[in-house]
Amino acid sequence: AQSVTQLDSQVPVFEEAPVELRCNYSSSVSVYLFWYVQYPNQGLQLLLKYLSGSTLVKGINGFEAEFNKSQTSFHLRKPSVHISDTAEYFCAVSDIDSSYKLIFGSGTRLLVRP
Amino acid sequence: NAGVTQTPKFRVLKTGQSMTLLCAQDMNHEYMYWYRQDPGMGLRLIHYSVGEGTTAKGEVPDGYNVSRLKKQNFLLGLESAAPSQTSVYFCASTGGTEAFFGQGTRLTVV
């Protein structure tokens, strides 16, 4: 069964600094990979997705992620964060063989400080 | 453009009471899911459906039942609520490549 690991439960960073949120998943033949963001007391919003093709995926709000098949990773990056990026970030994986069920990591709280 | 709509948004139940959460989607998606979100645990799959009239168990199905009588609706039932079911519940649907989520239902069982 698929599993997703987000190694960092919380990442504090200063405003305008770069950030990387790490995500690793268990191996599968073919997977779809996603990053979602959740602001306090709100639902999940899709940041970006990898379905196929280029391994560098660009998303909304200046975020990007790189799919690395050999390392089974899908790390999220942003070159310069803003206070408004403070939120919970979830990595998720799904594949056709599992009825497209999304398997989520436990989440990483990004805390941007002034 | 409603997307995925969950009702109710908030609910407080007493232990032993029952309730049904409704999820409705207007995107003609085949696949629908119910998740629960608890602090530090991400979202865990309760039940899911791959089409009208079908349901299947997810990771944490105990204490819940579901039905998908119509393609656009996916109902989650709690027959006898327990404090351990205090959580935020999210419904999602997908046509295969991207899942769309409802805004969540915050359920408290006292």
Short account of what is shown:
Chain A has 114 residues and is mainly β. Chain A contains no helices and twelve strands. With 110 residues, chain B is an all-beta fold.
How is this structure best described in words?
The complex is a heterodimer of chains A (114) and B (110). Chain A has 114 residues and is mainly beta. Helices cover 0% and strands 49% of the residues of chain A. Chain A has no helices and 12 strands. In chain A, the strands form 3 sheets. In chain A, strands 2, 5, 6, 10, 11 and 12 form a 6-stranded mixed β-sheet that branches. The mean pLDDT of chain A is 92. Chain B is an all-beta fold and 110 residues long. Chain B has no helices and 11 strands. The mean pLDDT of chain B is 95. The interface between A and B is medium-sized, with 24 and 24 residues.
The proportion of strand residues of chain B reads over 45%
Helix/sheet category of chain A: mainly beta
Number of helices of chain B: 0
Strand count, sense and barrel status of the largest sheet of chain A are:
6 strands, mixed
**Got a strand count of chain A?**
12
Estimated share of beta-strand residues of chain A:
over 45%
Question: Can you tell me the residue ranges of chain A where pLDDT is under 50 for at least 5 consecutive residues?
Answer: none
Structural class of chain B: mainly beta
**Sequence of secondary-structure elements of chain B:** EEEEEEEEEEE
Radius of gyration of chain B: 13 Å
Largest sheet of chain B, if any? 7 strands, mixed
The topology string of helices and strands of chain A comes to EEEEEEEEEEEE
Q: Give the distance, in angstroms, between the N- and C-terminal Cα atoms of chain A.
A: 41 Å
Discrete helix count of chain A: 0
User: Roughly what is the average pLDDT of chain A, rounded to an integer?
Assistant: 92
Gross geometry of chain A? globular
